[in-house]
Amino acid sequence: MNDVYFFGEGKADGSASDKNLLGGKGANLAEMINLGIPVPPGFTISTDICRYYMERDAYPDDLENQVQHSLKQVEKIMGQTFGNFDNPLLVSIRSGARKSMPGMMETILNVGLTSKTIPGLITKSKDERFVYDAYRRLITMYADVVMEKAACIKPQEGEGIREKLDKIMESLKNRESVTRDGDLSIENLKELCDIYKSTIKKTLKSEFPDDPNTQLWGGITAVFKSWNGKRAVSYRNIENIPHDWGTAVNIQSMVFGNMGDNCATGVAFTRNPATGKNNFYGEWLPNAQGEDVVAGLRTPNPLNHMSCSNKAKNLPSLEEIMPEIYGKLDTIQKQLETHYRDMQDIEFTIQNGHLWMLQTRVGKRNGAAAIRMAVEMAEEGLIDEKIALMRVNSDDLDEIMHPMLDKKVEKQSKILAAGLPAGPGGGSGQIVFTADDAESWHKDGKQVILVRSETSPEDVHGMFASEAILTARGGMTSHAALVARGWGKCCVVGCADLQISLQEKSLSVNGITLNEGDWLTLNGSNGNVYNGQIPLEAVNLKKNKYFQKIMEIADSHRKLLVRTNADSPGDAQQAREFGAEGIGLCRTEHMFFDPERISAMQEMIIAENETNRRKAIMKLLPYQRGDFYGILKAMAPYPVTIRLLDPPLHEFLPQDDDQISRLANELNVPMEALNARIEKLHEQNPMLGHRGCRLGVSFPEITEMQARAIFEATAQLVQENKIILPEVMVPLVGSVTEFIHQKEIIDNMAEIVKKETGVEIEYLVGTMIELPRACATADKIAEEAQFFSFGTNDLTQTTYGFSRDDIGSFLPDYLNHKIIPIDPFQSIDQEGVGCLVKMGVEKGRGVNPKLKIGICGEHGGDPKSIRFFHETGLDYVSCSPFRVPIARLTAAQSEINP
Ligand code: PEP
Ligand code: MG
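That is the input. Now the predicted structure with phosphoenolpyruvate docked in place:
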C-alpha cells in the first residue's frame, strides 16, 4: 500500500485529481510540480493514514520506511540531510484536508533544528541571527501544537503556552527598547530560546525535544490529531464537512523568506477576493516567514499598485522592490488561474532571490466577488455559463442583499477609528471581547461585535455568532479576514489605534473608552468604526450589473418559475425588482388589521345573524377592492394568487377586559353578549379548528365579499387596459366537496360582476394543498381545481403533527439527538412531507396533465427544497421577495446539475 506521495523537481506521484487522498494542499502541490512550477520538494502522507491513526492510535508498520524513502529523495534534491550536523535539511509539517479549512489545523516550521544542527546551518547560511530566529519559531510552534494541543492540555484563556512565549518576547523587546522582532540581536534570540525552553519545561512538564526524528514524528502525529481538535470540529459542523474525511500531512523542505533582504514571503489572490475585480491582488513582507503575513502581527506591504489600501499605500510593493521576481510571480498566477479556471489563493516565498510556490488553492471570496468573477470569467471565455452559475451560491446572493450602513447617518457620524475593510456590509452590535462571550450573548438573543487583538482559529464559534468582527491587528489575508470573508460577514481588521484590555473588558481608542456591552458599528466596506448604533439600509441591486447579469444567465437556464409571497403593492413591487414572475400567495388576513378595518371585521364576527354579518362585511368591500386593485396592478401582467381568508376568527378579537369593554361600547352590544360570543369562538386547537375554507363554508358571505372585491378590481383594471389574471385560492381544503362548495360561490360572483360591469374577466379557481388528505385525494380535487399550490407549512405541521408555532420547545432536543437532521419548517422533509407532495402531484396530473402546480410555504425560498420541487415537476415556487433571486439561481442550478 502506498501511503506516502512524493513531489519534487518535475516529478510528482499525485495530481490535482487526488484531493480525497492527498488533501487539497498536497494534491495542488503535486499539480504545480506537474505544471513545471517551482515548488520545494516534499511528500504527502495520505488521509487514509489519518483515519488509520484515529481508529488505532498507531501507524501501519511500514509507514516509517515509506517516510524515510521519500525523505531520502528530498534530501537528494536539496543536497541536504535531515538531522545532519554539517548540512541539515529542515522541513515544514502542514495539514491539508480535502476541503480547505483555513487555519483550523496545525503547521510546524523549521523541523529538524536541534542544538547539533544549529552550528551546521549557521555555517551554511552564514547568518546566525536567521538560525536562532528560525529556532525560536520552531520552539513556539512545537510547544503550542505538539506539546500542548496534541497533548490535550487545556490552559485558561490567555494562558496558553504560545501566549506565554509571546509575552516573554514582548518583554524582552521592551527591555531592549526595540519594537520590531527583527531588531532583536543574536544574543537576545539565544537568550529567548533558553527562556522559552525552561518556560516550556516548567509549564508543560516536559522538555522541548532536541532530536530531529522526535520532532518529525511528534509533528506528524500532532497534525493528524489536530483534525479532531475543538476548533476543527466546530468549523466542520458549521461548514457541513464530514468528520470522517481526515487530513493529509505535507512534509516539505523549508525555504526561507527570512534569510535577509533578498528574501520575502507573501500571500496573493489571482483576482481581488473582496471585489472580484480581475486584478492580481496580494500582500508580502520582506525578510519574513509566511506566518508573519497570515498571523497579522505586521501590517504587510501591497504586492503591486493594484493592492494598495489606504493603510499600506506608503509601503513599497513587490512590483517596485523586486520587479523581476514579481514578473515571474505574475506569469505563474496567470498560468494557475488559467489551468484551474478559477481564482487561486497562492502562497510564495522568495529565498535569496529565488521564487518558490508553497501553495495554490481555490480562493475564498465574498458574495459580491463570487458573482463578479463568475460573470467576468464567463465573458472572458475561461468558463461557460453553466459553470458560472454553479460558482455562485445562495449565500453569495444573500450576502450582497445584506444591508449596508445608512449612508446619511454614517456621513454625519464621527469616525472613531479606521482599519482595513475585510468583510463588506455594515454591522452594529454590543461589544464582547471573547469568542465564548460572543456565543453566549448571541444565545441570549443579543447582537454582538467581537473585538479581538487578532482572531485565531480558536475563536471561530464566537466569530460565527457575531454580527461583525473587529481586530486591532492583521491584514486582508489575516485569519479574521479570511474567515469573515468566507462567511460573508462584516469585518474590519488591523484597526491599529485600538487598545484592548481583556482584564477590564474594555477598549480604548483615540481617547474614548468603551466597555463590554457598549454599542459599536462597523462599516466592513470601507473599514470605518463608529461609536454607537447606526441604522442599516437595504442594498440597491439595480446598480449591481454583475448581479443583474448572473440573474439574466440564471433565467436563461431555468424552467422552474419563481413567484413571490406578497400582500401589499410595495412588497409586490420589490419582488418584481428581484425578478418575481407573479404572486404565488397573497394572504388576505393581513389586510384586516388596520384600525378602520378591524372594527368592521369584529362587527362581522360577533354578528348574530346573516343579515348583520353581511352588513358588516360589506363595509370591508371597498377596502379589499382597493387592496386587490393595488396588488394586481403592481404585478400586471403576471398572475396573482389571492387566498381567501384563512385564520380562525378569534385572532381578530380582543383578548383583555379593557379592549373587550371598548369594543362592546363601539359596537353598542352588552359586555356579556360580547364575552359570550368570544367564549363561543374559543377553540382548544385553533390550528385544526374553524379556519381555512371551513370559514367560507360556515360564512359564505366572507367568500362572496372577497370574490366580489377581486373581480371588481379586475374589471376596473381590465377597463384600464391592463392584462390581469387573478387566481382565487381556497385554503385548507381536505375534501373536494369543500372546494366545490367554495368554487360555486366564486364562480357565481364572477358572473354577477361580469354582468354588472359588462367586462369580460379571466380568472382561475384553485386550492392550497396543505393537508395530507388533500394529497391523498388530489385526483378528485384536480377534477375541479384549476391549480394546486402546496402549503408546505401546514402540510409539515399536519404530516409530522408538529405545531408550527410550538416546535421551538423541543426542536433543539430533536436536532441534538439527530432524531431529525434539520428543522422541517425550514427545509422540506423530503422523505415524509415530500412524499405527500409527490403523491399530490402524481394524482393531480394523472387527472389533469396540464394542472398548474406551485408551492407557497416557506420552503419555496430554501435552496435544498427548491431543488426537490424542481425534481418533483412543479411549475413554480413562491417565496418572500428577498429570497426571489436565490430561488431564480437555485432553479437554474437544479436544471444544470440535478
Ligand atoms: C402554508 O401553510 O404553507 C401556507 C403557505 O399558508 P400559511 O403559512 O399562511 O398557513
Ligand atoms: Mg397554510
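The radius of gyration is 33 Å.
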